[in-house]
Specification:
Blueprint lengths: L1 H16 L8 E12 L3 E12 L2 H23 L3 E14 L7 E14 L5 H11 L3 E2 L3 E3 L4 H26 L2 E14 L2 E2 L17 E14 L1
Antiparallel strand pairs: 1-9, 2-4, 2-5, 2-6, 3-4, 6-8, 7-9
Length: 224
């Protein structure tokens, strides 16, 4: 019994003089990054609007002009872009008197033009207007595949988050341990050129850059 008691006392004293290995909670930090890159595609909406006294006439006139516009755009784009219908409508027009009466109809055909050759955007606008389009919306610049840039931004944001976590730990007189969890968020917004665009000798359009942003929130173990 005496030997067992001495053994327990020895183990207790040995444990008491061992260095502390206790962890001290967690640290959360947020990192962010934005990468600006040159866009590799542009989109614009081209519309043909016609008016006539009957719905059929408005639609027929619109079809003639719209076919000419689409053909001209496709010819210019070749394999470096696409033309897709995004809207079509035929609506009555009314008098401003009461009671209102129908005085005619308006037909609208809108197509979205996507080009991968940013050097021909101005010529596309001029071509559409010359072929019969009477409404061209603002140009939107973007990326065909933003994933590689997004991955790069996430990597930079994660590194920043770990640096911030280490700084917080140093300020607390502790150290960072393993990463317990990480959450990511990313956004990519094409750059829009607002307003309607009219024909010119060659409509000047500057693409600029688009930004891909990312945030990473990490939770790391805090150690002594």
């Amino acid at each position: 019994m005496r030997k067992l008691f001495i053994l327990l006392i020895t183990l207790f004293l040995a444990a008491a003089i061992l260095p502390a290995q206790v962890t001290g909670g967690t640290i959360q930090a947020i990192g962010s990054a934005t990468i600006n890159v040159t866009p590799d595609q542009a989109q614009l909406t081209v519309s043909v609007v016609t008016q006539a006294t009957t719905a059929q006439d408005a639609a027929q006139q619109n079809a003639t002009l719209a076919n000419a516009v689409i053909a001209a755009l496709k010819s210019m784009l070749g394999s470096l872009g696409t033309v897709q219908t995004v809207g079509y409508s035929v609506n009555p027009r009314y008098t401003n008197t009461s009671p209102q009466t129908i005085i005619g109809y308006t037909a609208t055909n809108s197509v979205q033009v996507t080009t991968y050759d940013l050097s021909n955007i101005g010529r596309l606008i001029d071509t559409a207007n010359q072929a019969g389009a009477n409404s061209v919306s603002g140009v939107s610049f973007g990326l065909r595949n933003p994933d590689p840039v997004t991955q790069q931004a996430l990597g930079q944001a994660a590194k920043q988050a770990l640096v911030f976590a280490a700084s917080i730990a140093a300020g607390l007189g502790t150290k960072v341990g393993p990463v317990i969890s990480a959450q990511q968020g990313a956004s990519y917004t094409p750059v829009d050129v607002p307003g309607a665009l009219a024909a010119a000798a060659t409509t000047p359009i500057q693409s600029g850059t688009v930004g891909v942003s990312a945030t990473v929130t990490v939770v790391v173990q805090q150690t002594q």
